[in-house]
Amino acid sequence: MSSSPSPLSARGSRLALLVVGLCWLAVLFDGLDMFIYGSVLPHLLETKTFGLTADTAGDLGSYATFGMLVGALAAGTIADRIGRKKLMVSCVVLFSLASAVCAIADSVAVFGLGRTLAGVGLGGLLPTAISMVSDYAPRGRGAIVIGLLMTAHHAGGILSAYVAKWLVDPVGWRAAFWVCVLPLLFAPVLARFLPESLSFLVAKGRGEEARALAARYDVELPAAKSAKPGAADRWTNLVNLFRGGEWIQTLLYWLASFGGLLLVYGVATWLPTLMRAEGYELGSALSFVVVFNLGGIVGMLVAGRAADCFGAPRISAIWFALTAAGVFLLSVHMPMTATMVVVFLTGVFLNSAQTMIYATVSIRSNADNRATAVGWTSGMGRFGAVFGPWLGGQLLAAGNGDWGFTAFALAGLSSMVFIGIAAVRGARQTPKSTAGPELVSAH
Questions:
Q1: How far is Cα of residue 157 from the mean position of the Cα atoms in its chain?
Q2: Rg of the chain in Å (alpha carbons)
Q3: Quick check: 435 pLDDT over 70?
Q4: What is the mean pLDDT of residues 368-396?
């Protein structure tokens, strides 16, 4: 095993490109499946498919995000047992087959089951893909590679809008979900060409296999780590987040994450429907999804650099303030050009504001407690992801659709306040040895 850094070889570069490329495609399909429900939702409500109402539609949106919560929480444990490669392939198969369940559904219950199962696959895929590209990223390029990977999620959102635009009216909404079954054909490609995580192979004592893979592509083998902490150690790390005055800091991060993911998934689910409620045609409303996700791609690419220059906590607070302003402006009927600009900028700030919460937690945490702190901040935020789609449905069902954007804007302001207070409180006690800002998925 190499004990000192060495320049990345051409073969190592090809391996990194292979891993990032395959993971990018997997996350593209993840984004397509995640956003497709919001893209077809205006049509489902207009045609009253399954007798769907706004509040029922909000419940269905929450089923997928609840499934993502389950998938994300289970991903680490399952990946440690079967490997990251097998888990990624399994997740692609699961959310593809779940889309088939949605496509043939004859009732809300069956459709909801499909969305829940899809959510489990979606929630398990993203953190596993991030771990994979982190393993093979060129030295010192981890953040930008993860940012590049996350552009795939928003590219999937763009693709979902076009799928809905091209298929829903002429063919029907079921055709859109059949398109989401096509990633099933990608699963064998992933199984054939994606290498297993070197870290997993080393941790499992499969040294010969790991050395053969590293030698084939002339890359460094990760150093063998000491045994993972047991359950008692993990609970100790969690308890440490609440010792002394740390409980205030921890709760502030959790509340900021809750509001941030409420905003992310609330807007992702309801943007086309809320824009239609503001008087825009369906085609225009789906165009907003495209522009919004284009903004998300730009935001993911610039977030890390902005944090390097001005600090992740400050950027997170500013980004949430700008997001809240943008989301609120969407409730005002403006000329089309102005609306497109606002939607784009909202996408830029919204989709990276939550990322900066994770970066802030990572920076402010001790090295031995960092994984626990980031993991639990993400986990608590997932409850906001479940609540956001439900909230939008309740507001529309009560005839308060105009308040939808306002409610989401208030969620952004609350996250701005919580992360701002946490940053001010934590500035005086930043650990001496901290890692640089990590670009972690907001989803």
A1: 12
A2: 21
A3: no
A4: 83
- Give the type of residue at 28: L
Lowest pLDDT segment from 13-22, 51-60, 259-268, 357-366: 357-366
> What percent of the chain is modeled with pLDDT above 70?
86
Asked if residue 433 has pLDDT above 70, the reply is no
Measured CA angle at 239 (ends 236, 243), to 5 deg = 125
Tokens of 375: 């993991």
Could you tell me the two tokens for 439? 């670009």
Q: Is the per-residue pLDDT at 83 higher than 80?
A: yes
The answer to whether residues 427 and 361 touch, using CB atoms and an 8 Å cutoff, is no
CB-CB contact of 75 with 123 (8 Å):
yes
pLDDT of residue 1: 40
Scan for tokens 């050395």, then name that residue.
211
Q: What Å distances lie between residue 60 and 37, 38, 128, CA to CA?
A: 9, 10, 25
pTM of the model: 0.80
Q: What angle do CA 141, 147, 153 make, to 5 degrees?
A: 145
Q: By the 8 A CB rule, do 155 and 167 touch?
A: no
Burial of 341 from C-beta contacts in 10 A (0-12 / 13-18 / 19+): middle
Phi-psi domain of 8 (left: phi exceeds 0; alpha: psi -120 through 50; beta: other): beta
172: CB partners within 8 A, 6+ apart: none
Look-up of token digits 């001496």: 432
190-200 exposure pattern, b = at least 16 Cβ within 10 A, e = fewer = beeebbbbbbb
With 0-12 / 13-18 / 19 or more C-beta atoms within 10 angstroms meaning exposed / middle / buried, residue 185 is exposed
Q: Which residues contact 1 (CB under 8 A, 6 or more apart)?
A: 211, 220, 221, 222, 223, 224
